Amino acid sequence: MLKIAYDPIYAHNLPPGHRFPMVKYELIPGQLLHEGLITEENIFSPEPLGGETILLVHERDYWNRLKNLTVTPKEERRIGFPLSARLIERETRIANGTVQGCFHAIENGVSFNVAGGTHHAGTNWGEGFCLLNDQAIAAAYLLKKRIASSVLIIDLDVHQGNGTAQIFRNEPAVFTFSMHGEKNFPFHKEKSDYDIGLQDGIGDDEYLSILKENLSSLFDQIHPDFVFYLSGVDVLETDKLGKLALTRQGCKERDRMVFEQCFQRNIPVQVSMGGGYSAHIRDIVEAHCNTYRVAHQIYF
């Protein structure tokens, strides 16, 4: 059964002025329920994640500053919005949705977190609206518990997964792959195990050709036993921040490529939704829902 991590707290408790496009956290499951693609049985609400698991990747001083709301004004500006206790709780629930999603992926082949993809958070910093790095935490958890021994993180958000790259720079059991806009945020990029920086304006054909050329060889090289996929839809031509030019169909085919590799090789994959900043919320929601639709076609 397809399992999706979602909690109403995902969509609320954001500071005023930051709720669009985060309203997508409500609209995505609502649309899938409306279509009959999922039922309430497919949705689970994660509890807050404990500090012990968070500390697998984040430094204790940083975590203490977050939970005690004692970050400096400079740190808060880098994060991008004012912090609150409810916001920190929201982040811990999102991170646990990804951790718990790993077990659902192992059982069913694939699982989703409506939120997540907080790949700009490093060991001791938050950045770009990311406080805790959900997929990095979950990957470290799988290694710690010896549930996985070789992890591949596929980050296809338009922005480089700089926090994820920094966290795992000295961890050979985790291979970080980021395909992103070279001239886009973050302007200081960390070094992933494999980075592909794309020029502005790339459309479907060129994007999909580059991905196809590299994706299969990555699996052959790494032989992962678990995959994390960050499926940001800020690659769309309608995105206000992305600078690429993919259509919804091109974005959908991107997802299909990733899922087919995982399905054919019988490797579980956890999906976090990542960014999307199109002017019209329908473009964001439709592209994210396409990711679920493709997974449902392949796995169920």
Automatic annotation (TrEMBL):
Any single GO BP term = epigenetic regulation of gene expression
- Name the InterPro entries for this protein: HDAC_classIV, HDACs, His_deacetylse_dom, His_deacetylse_dom_sf, Ureohydrolase_dom_sf
Annotated keywords: Hydrolase
Which family, according to UniProt?
Belongs to the histone deacetylase family.
Question: What are the Histone deacetylase domain coordinates in residue numbering?
Answer: 19-290
Entry's Gene Ontology molecular function annotations: histone deacetylase activity; hydrolase activity
In Swiss-Prot or TrEMBL terms, this protein is called: Histone deacetylase
